[in-house]
Amino acid sequence: MLLNVQNLNVMIPTQGGPLHAVQDVSFSVSKGETLCIVGESGCGKSVTALSLLGLLPKSAKRSASRMTFDGQDMITMSDKQIRALRGNRLSMIFQEPMTALNPLHTLGRQLTDVYMAHRRGNREAARQRAVYLLERVGIAKAAERLGQYPHELSGGLRQRVVIAMALMCEPELIVADEPTTALDVTIQAELLRLLAELQKSMGLGMIMITHDLGLVSRIADRVVVMYAGQVIENALAKELFENPKHPYTRALLGSVPDPSHPRMQPLPSIPGTVPSLVQKMEGCHFRDRCAFASEECRVPIPLVGVGAEHVARCIKTGAQAPNARSTAP
């Protein structure tokens, strides 16, 4: 097992009170595996990712019963040890390439700086590595691109540079935080194929953070569904899409457009709004929006096994409707 996270919690102080952004989140990733973390905006996906790389705000409080990378305890790591890991064996692809790249430095400078920070070698060796990776990610005339600045490239090319930067030190695990959200559909498809090819050829583990269930169905080995700071379902991808157990997961799947459905038929939607994470909420976080909720759902609900390698945070999995598309009231 490459990464093992158990009972991760992140609390961020705010003027309105403590914001419990991540609550008792657990998952693991093996070498060569793709784990997709899905959920709507504000559910804690990105905060979970940032906590792995030690990039949380200084005011944030992180705790976990276990958090290891290749057997190393990440909880007790010093800032220096985390920096040595980040960008080296554990790397991240950010959502918006224009903010991930420094507009004041050339692409070559930024790529080689990553290499020089973690590897013993000269600038020429770093430059050769940068040219090689830019070619691997499909950028023509790679050597010439090293002298360019981020604003001189299109959004798709900038994201390819960010991917190359994440690969500079041959990481074992990449965290990709919605890496194609700001790009058009054609470029998205190209970059996703590229990531899949690179992962297979390099044996990378990957955590893909997204709200795109179509993407998840194509690339995931395992899926973690988050809602309001909690993991509400965790299963192998095939099992999750064929046999979702939590009402929220079913409602998410039900909201995906289906070309076989009659035209002009409204898509199912989930009523209500996501609860505030300021002050800790007891019981099921989804209960106010769930058609199956009862008084029993007001007590703390653990993740329970509902199948082989399949857990869900729900006490009424057996009472749910049989069709994933019929659960959103």
UniProtKB/TrEMBL annotation:
<dbReference type="GO" id="GO:0005524">
    <property type="term" value="F:ATP binding"/>
</dbReference>
<dbReference type="Pfam" id="PF00005">
    <property type="entry name" value="ABC_tran"/>
</dbReference>
<protein>
    <submittedName>
        <fullName>ABC transporter ATP-binding protein</fullName>
    </submittedName>
</protein>
<dbReference type="GO" id="GO:0055085">
    <property type="term" value="P:transmembrane transport"/>
</dbReference>
<comment type="similarity">
    <text>Belongs to the ABC transporter superfamily.</text>
</comment>
<keyword id="KW-1003">Cell membrane</keyword>
<dbReference type="InterPro" id="IPR003439">
    <property type="entry name" value="ABC_transporter-like_ATP-bd"/>
</dbReference>
<keyword id="KW-0067">ATP-binding</keyword>
<dbReference type="InterPro" id="IPR050388">
    <property type="entry name" value="ABC_Ni/Peptide_Import"/>
</dbReference>
<dbReference type="GO" id="GO:0016887">
    <property type="term" value="F:ATP hydrolysis activity"/>
</dbReference>
<keyword id="KW-0813">Transport</keyword>
<dbReference type="InterPro" id="IPR003593">
    <property type="entry name" value="AAA+_ATPase"/>
</dbReference>
<dbReference type="InterPro" id="IPR027417">
    <property type="entry name" value="P-loop_NTPase"/>
</dbReference>
<dbReference type="InterPro" id="IPR013563">
    <property type="entry name" value="Oligopep_ABC_C"/>
</dbReference>
<dbReference type="Pfam" id="PF08352">
    <property type="entry name" value="oligo_HPY"/>
</dbReference>
<keyword id="KW-0472">Membrane</keyword>
<feature type="domain" description="ABC transporter">
    <location>
        <begin position="3"/>
        <end position="253"/>
    </location>
</feature>
<dbReference type="GO" id="GO:0005886">
    <property type="term" value="C:plasma membrane"/>
</dbReference>
<dbReference type="GO" id="GO:0015833">
    <property type="term" value="P:peptide transport"/>
</dbReference>
<keyword id="KW-0547">Nucleotide-binding</keyword>
